[in-house]
């Protein structure tokens, strides 16, 4: 290849990588902007119409043909939207004394200072009282932080239309960690077996694992439903919880079966990563250990596995990335829209594997596509998506930093 073609190929690769990086950063920026926007205090507007009526609320959609205005929700959440035609508007102002009252059940009420008597009709405690039009920049940042903290630390209300996502956040993190505890030992043992043995049968097993890596996620969900829930779970109920039947204990979807299903889903990724790490270890290390009198098992446990720890963590990173985004199988093996209790709490035995749980991925789906109030649901879906990306990034960065530290230590030993 001539130098000119070589340079052109390098520029083409660099340009493609730059475009891909720009698209990725743009998507992340769009996600963060759309996800954080609902927590920023919106101004309250007072609109006077030609018929003499006065509307007070938040503009949620400013179209060219009509304006969608959220007014006080006295009856139910999402039941007080008004469509206003610009031609019918006489005056449109933002009064400084306008007050936003957010109730515990998620409803929003709007009033002017000194005219809050209708609030007594709501029959729900007031969670937040705010005057958005009178806030300065730093006060808005404080209100933004307060709303974001409530979103992260509170439970959902009003059929997941409002409130926080703490149960879904805890369910997602606990599920990923439990999946890792199951998938990593099983994947490491399988990779060691495939690496140490030879034969036609092992080639077939390796080919089957490679094929499983491309299987649709919903297939694993059906497998988990039939094998774990209706098979093993129903058997455990018959043997150990017969007095509770026909109410199932382990014979219904739960955290344990969801973790095992995701472990099967991510197992091929872990096996391939660990096996490639074992293949990169110099043969001289193994031969030197055997020459010094170490057995095969001692060489494996004291030399090869410590040296392959960066590959183990690479497999963990890939497993976390795939498991965190797998929503379809979870809908069959334990995830629910609203869970009455957390799978991890302060009650012995603290972790409840048979309990149903919430997940950020299912919350995104429910808010975006199954919400009765799309004006609230779509921004909430963006916020949950941004939170899910943040959880995956934190888990992956933790594993990557640990992997790089172990890799540097191994290179220092080689030198």
Could you characterize the architecture of this molecule?
This protein has 415 residues and is of the alpha+beta class. It has two domains: 45-153, no CATH class; 166-414, MetI-like (MetI-like fold, Orthogonal Bundle). It has helices spanning 3-36, 137-153, 166-196, 200-212, 217-240, 255-279, 283-291, 296-307, 309-324, 330-333, 360-369, 374-414; strands at 45-49, 54-62, 67-70, 81-84, 89-93, 98-103, 108-112, 126-130, 156-157, 162-163. The strands form three sheets. Strands 4-3-2-1-5 form a five-stranded antiparallel beta sheet, with no helix packed on it. Strand 2 (54-62) and strand 3 (67-70) form a beta hairpin. The longest helix is centred in the last third of the chain and has 41 residues, at 374-414.
The N- and C-terminal alpha carbons lie at a distance of 36 Å
Low-confidence stretches: none
Summing up helix and strand content along with how strands pair, one would put the structural category as alpha+beta
**Given the C-alpha coordinates, what overall shape results?**
globular
CATH topology of the largest domain: MetI-like fold
> What's the pLDDT, averaged over the residues?
84
Structural domains: how many = 2
CATH architecture identity of the largest domain: Orthogonal Bundle
Main sheet, how many strands, which sense, barrel?
5 strands, antiparallel
Assign the CATH class of the largest domain. Mainly Alpha
* Cα-atom radius of gyration: 28 Å
Give helix and strand order, one letter per element, not per position. HEEEEEEEEHEEHHHHHHHHHH
Give a count of the beta strands, DSSP E runs of length 2 or more: 10
